[in-house]
Design the sequence.
């Protein structure tokens, strides 16, 4: 059933892919700088995070931050302002480095004690005509191994995360697992 929802939303159902919901939740758990990169404070905090050590600067360069050291110093001191494209690169590099830095910590916490309890909130069918609605219940399950999910998330591999979610996790729901390819939200704590 997963990957078969070619016309998702055709009759008014609303939701997101379960793997995208997991990615959002992991991003929330990773925390980080909440001030937007467009604000001076947010930009300065991200640049400080990315240039604090040689290792983090190398990771930022690997994640796509191509500015020279001189340009980075000018941005940090406020003498120059990055372009919109560079602001997006800075934010993307920050997200990539942050994910890589917290991945092991999150993985240990999610796998601890035999796994983590996950709540799956089904898709929203409020706009679907009554005869076309189906019964999709709120589900909870325990995920014992998070290695592939967190590894794909840390690498920014959307396709790998979707594959891990649909082949490793959803089949544990039984014969109804295809109904949870799209969801309203997925909740868990670490």
Sequence:
């Amino acid at each position: 059933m997963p990957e078969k929802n070619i016309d998702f939303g055709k009759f008014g159902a609303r939701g997101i892919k379960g793997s995208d919901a997991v990615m959002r939740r992991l991003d929330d758990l990773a925390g980080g700088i909440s001030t937007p990169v467009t604000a001076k404070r947010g930009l300065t905090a991200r640049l400080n995070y990315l240039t604090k050590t040689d290792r983090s600067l190398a990771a930022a360069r690997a994640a796509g931050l191509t500015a020279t050291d001189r340009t980075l110093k000018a941005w940090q001191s406020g003498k120059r302002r990055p372009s919109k494209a560079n602001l997006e690169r800075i934010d993307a590099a920050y997200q990539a480095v942050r994910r890589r830095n917290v991945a092991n910590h999150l993985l240990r916490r999610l796998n601890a004690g035999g796994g983590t309890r996950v709540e799956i909130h089904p898709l929203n069918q409020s706009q679907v005509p009554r005869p076309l609605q189906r019964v999709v219940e709120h589900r909870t399950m325990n995920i014992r191994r998070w290695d592939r999910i967190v590894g794909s998330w840390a690498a920014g591999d959307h396709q790998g995360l979707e594959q891990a979610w649909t082949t490793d996790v959803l089949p544990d729901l039984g014969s109804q697992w295809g109904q949870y390819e799209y969801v309203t939200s997925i909740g868990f704590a670490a």
User: Anything to note?
Assistant: The helical segments are 18-30, 40-51, 54-62, 69-77, 84-111, 147-155, 158-169.
